[in-house]
Design a protein that fits this description.
- The chain is of the alpha/beta class and 416 residues long.
- Helices cover 49% and strands 20% of the residues.
- Among the domains are: 3-105, no CATH class; 241-367.
- A hairpin with a 5-residue loop joins strand 9 (173-180) and strand 10 (186-191).
């Protein structure tokens, strides 16, 4: 094999001709390898955006450089002229090259390596390994995602979706995320958590595809419920059972605080101390209770009937929502009657709240659809944020989340 072909293969610049390889004077304390290349005949004179063959315009502004993957311990760059062409669609524009995208400062193999590493380790580690700044890592990730989405419609074929919000930064900074229940992939995310933000998702989906949505799961937030009802009238909305149990846990804690305050007011400091320390015993599922927590619950059963009744209400609701749909609905009817007669204000309010969401809860039990998948997605997004030590803006986080969780992550160069 000729030497120029070996260099082209090693550098990952197939479709290009290697003209010269040289070591240059040290930059930043390390020598760099400069490789002069030019596009092959089949790749010359093409628009940098649409890749259409176009007539030449001028020779451009001289040489351009692209960062390539290091060769061993040596920093490597590609160097080539940058002529301009006249594209009928995009006007006068720099001609495209086969080894890099339009306006890119590094080769595709370099960008794909950055993107792959960013899904497996922190941005700071990627920066140290590849000798680039962390802002450069974010810019490359955004570019790789944008290129991967060209010619691909992530919103096509959606039938069952999950919608939720996640806090990505202090100061009530939220993302609205949408997951495809069938593929398990993140299909859309945007900063904000309101009707306007969610409306942008359905705008991107389009009226025809909104008609194809059959099931939509959420946590019962009014801003989600209203937008889905208006934009997807044929979709059945499902209320996530996990959030119903969370409502019951909140009601139980409200009862605990009431009896704790009553005990303090009556001067029963020992009882108040026991109630304050019983919070996690009341929250924990029975099968996971420690011996100490079991003793606390036994003491509450003997000495505090209202709080123990609240605990039983929470546990029966949790059990009901784990049963098959028909049995669950029958048990829920009885539970609602018990909660209304319990003389516990938080559970009376909870019964009213469940009544308001009855159709959505029934749909979730009937179709077996919950927000467990999207809650798992949120956990992974939090892990991405933690691993990257946070983001200054939501765009880089969304790009990295789409890369990791949306099926857009490229393979490592040479290993596809």
């Amino acid at each position: 094999m000729r030497g120029v072909r070996v260099w082209a293969r090693v550098l990952g610049v197939e479709g290009a001709v290697v003209q010269d390889v040289r070591l240059e004077e040290p930059q930043d304390g390390a020598e760099c390898l400069m490789v002069s290349v030019r596009p092959g005949w089949g790749e010359r004179g093409r628009c940098g955006i649409c890749r259409r063959r176009c007539p030449g315009f001028d020779s451009g502004g001289g040489l351009r450089r692209w960062r390539a993957l290091d060769l061993g311990t040596t920093k490597t760059y590609l160097e080539a002229t940058a002529p301009r062409v006249r594209c009928p669609e995009h006007g006068v524009i720099v001609a495209g090259v086969p080894w890099a995208g339009h306006d890119a400062r590094s080769t595709r193999s370099f960008d794909d390596t950055v993107a792959w590493l960013a899904t497996h380790c922190s941005k700071s580690a990627v920066g140290v390994l590849l000798r680039v700044g962390w802002r450069t890592v974010g810019r490359i990730i955004t570019g790789v995602v944008a290129e991967a989405e060209e010619g691909r419609d992530r919103l096509d074929g959606l039938r069952r979706i999950g919608i939720d919000e996640i806090s990505h930064r202090k100061g009530h900074r939220y993302l609205t995320v949408v997951v495809d229940h069938d593929s398990g992939r993140l299909v859309w995310a945007a900063p904000g958590r309101d009707t306007a933000t969610l409306g942008r998702f359905f705008d991107a989906l389009g009226d025809d595809r909104c008609e194809q949505i059959r099931l939509a799961s959420a946590d019962g937030a009014p801003w989600i419920k209203g937008v889905v009802a208006r934009r997807c009238p044929r979709a059945t909305q499902c209320m996530d059972p996990f959030h119903v149990v969370a409502w019951a846990t909140d009601a139980l804690d409200a009862v605990r605080r009431e009896v704790w305050r009553a005990a303090r007011k009556a001067g029963q400091t020992a009882v108040a101390g026991e109630l304050k320390g019983a919070r996690f015993a009341l929250w924990t599922n029975p099968e996971r209770l420690t011996e100490g927590q079991q003793r606390r619950l036994a003491g509450i059963k003997r000495t505090n009937e209202p709080l123990y009744r609240a605990y039983l209400l929470k546990e029966q609701l949790r059990t009901a929502l784990q049963m098959p749909a028909h049995a669950a609905m029958n048990l829920l009817v009885g539970w609602l009657s018990w909660a209304r007669r319990s003389r516990l204000a938080p559970f009376v309010d909870l019964a009213r709240k469940i009544d308001e969401h009855w159709d959505q809860i029934a749909a979730s039990l009937t179709h077996g659809l919950s927000n467990a998948r999207i809650e798992s997605m949120n956990t992974k997004i939090r892990l991405i944020t933690r691993r990257s030590f946070g983001f200054h803006g939501p765009e880089a986080l969304i790009a990295l989340a789409m890369l990791s969780l949306g099926g857009l992550c490229p393979p490592l160069p040479g290993r596809a």
